[in-house]
Structures are given as C-alpha cells and as structure tokens.
Design a protein that fits this description.
Strand content: 5-15%
Number of helices: 10
Largest sheet: 5 strands, parallel
Order of helices and strands: HHEHHEHEHEEHEHEHHE
Number of strands: 8
Protein name: Lipopolysaccharide biosynthesis glycosyltransferase
Distance between the termini: 51 Å
Pfam family, one: GT-D
Helix content: 25-40%
Structural class: alpha/beta
Strand order of the largest sheet: 7-6-4-5-8
Keywords: Transferase
Organism: Lactococcus lactis subsp. cremoris (strain SK11)
GO molecular function: transferase activity
Radius of gyration: 18 Å
Length: 276
C-alpha cells in the first residue's frame, strides 16, 4: 500500500440511491461537503467565496454533526474504491488526501455520511452506466412538488433542460454568485418568506450548507443540490469531459466569462425574490 492509499481515511459513505431513499422516506434536508468546504474550514478562500472565520466555524460544526432524520450531512464518496473514477478525478482526490490527511484524522467523525455525489452522479465516473438510475432517484425528490430554487445570478438551474420538468411548480430566489455568505441573513429571511410548504433546493456553494442546516432545524426541508444542473447537461449530451455551457454557469469553470444569457420568459417569471 503506497503513501497516498495510506492517506485515505476510513469514512463510511452511503450510496447515491441510499441517500435519495433516506431523504424521500424521512423528508430530510441535505447538506453536502466537498473539497471547497474543506478548504474554507482550513482557512483558504475558494472561487466565489472568500474565507471567513465565522463561515469556517459553522461549516466545521455542521460537518461534525451526526446525520439524522431532519438533516443528512454528506461527504464525497471517495474514501473507498477510488478506481471508480476517471484518472483526472483520482489524481485530484489523491492530492486532496495528501493535503488534508491530518484534518481527516483529527475530524470528529460520524458513524456514516450521506453521499455528496448525489449532485455529481455522472462526469467523473469511469463507467457512467449508473447515471440514469441516479438521476431518476434524484429527480424523484421533487416529483410533483412545489420547489423553491435558491441560486446565484448566473446559475439558471434547469433552464434549457428537463431537470425540473417533473416539479409541480418552480419559484426562484436569485442571490449573489460571489460571496453569498455576506448576504446570509437576507437570503435566510427571503427563504422563510417564500419557502413555507415548498421543497427548497439550494445551489449556493458553502453558504448553502449553513442555510440548509439552519432551515432543517426550523422545520423546513432544504436540499443542497449544488451543481446538478451542469451534471445533467453533460449527461444529456453524453459528454466525456466538463464541457463549458454557453448560456449559464458551468461547474469547475470558475469564472463566469463569455456567458450569453438568453431571454427565457419562464425563467424570468419564476423569480419571486432577488438578493443583491
């Protein structure tokens, strides 16, 4: 066993399907941690979200909270069988473990975690044949439901595809794409104003984790669904790499340049709140 393999901590992650089934059964909220949140906890800024000591503290506290029926806490499914992923993803996570080995060793670990990749079920997998089942499970979470999407100005999640076509209705709160945490209280109050009796879908980086956890404690169901729109676009086009989307934000393309926003009346009419 080489040094990189030795760096991988023993953390138990439930599958995408198990995570989706748990959410459906218990009407749970979900907060997903990825490399960006781990960076912030360890005092680094990331694209779209500068480091904040308060944010870092909140993220660490949530990460060390055991999942329960109210709220699932998720980590990436990379702690076993890393060979499931393409070479680029494998190399990325090996580098991540080399950098954060001590962090994971010292982390007050839960018995198990939900699967962060519930929103990333396609592009990094070497064998992508499971993606259809994964997307079906995820999309079933908002089947025939009134949903409130909370997203950045350039996200436009579901615009131009069928991702949320099975929802009963779609409303949106549009938030700053950069440093959304600075507007945390405004965003939270807007969600409380418009989110009652709705399934809240959060697509707002690290800020979504704090929002989702707090909302779950106040009786709302909020699912941090992240970059699922990019994944769904790539899945529908059969992409083998992270193709830049022309008309909205693209995952891992960390600077929203050269985006051509198309007029879309359904999108515009779905916006019920703006935080600037």
């Amino acid at each position: 066993m080489n040094i990189v393999e030795n760096n991988i901590p023993d953390i138990k992650i439930r599958s995408i399907i198990e995570t989706a089934d748990f959410i459906k059964k218990n009407k749970s909220s979900l907060v997903r941690f990825g490399d960006g949140e781990i960076d912030i906890i360890n005092h680094s800024s990331i694209p779209y979200q500068p480091y904040s000591p308060e944010l870092a503290k909140q993220l660490k506290n949530i990460l060390e909270t055991q999942s329960d029926e109210k709220c699932l806490v998720a980590l990436p499914d990379v702690f076993q069988n890393l060979e499931r992923y393409n070479n680029s993803a494998q190399n990325f996570w090996k580098g991540h473990f080399e950098r954060y080995h001590n962090f994971y060793q010292e982390l007050h670990k839960s018995d198990w975690y939900a699967n962060t990749f519930i929103s990333r079920p396609y592009i990094d997998l070497e064998d992508k044949s499971s993606a259809a089942e994964s997307f079906e499970a995820v999309r079933s979470l908002w089947e025939a439901k009134d949903i409130l999407i909370v997203e950045g100005t350039s996200s436009r999640s579901g615009v131009g595809n069928t991702l949320f076509q099975n929802a009963k209705s779609i409303s949106r709160i549009i938030c700053p794409s950069h440093n959304a945490y600075q507007k945390y209280n405004d965003i939270l109050e807007s969600i409380k104003t418009f989110g009652m009796e709705k399934l809240i879908l959060l697509m707002l980086g690290p800020t979504a984790k704090v929002l989702g956890f707090q909302l779950s404690r106040e009786g709302y169901q909020a699912i941090d669904i992240g970059h699922i729109d990019s994944e769904y676009e790539w899945y529908q086009m059969g992409a083998s790499y992270k193709v830049k989307l022309q008309h909205k934000h693209t995952a891992e393309h960390n600077y929203d340049t050269d985006i051509i926003f198309l007029q879309d009346n359904d999108y515009e009419n779905s916006i019920i709140g703006r935080i600037e």
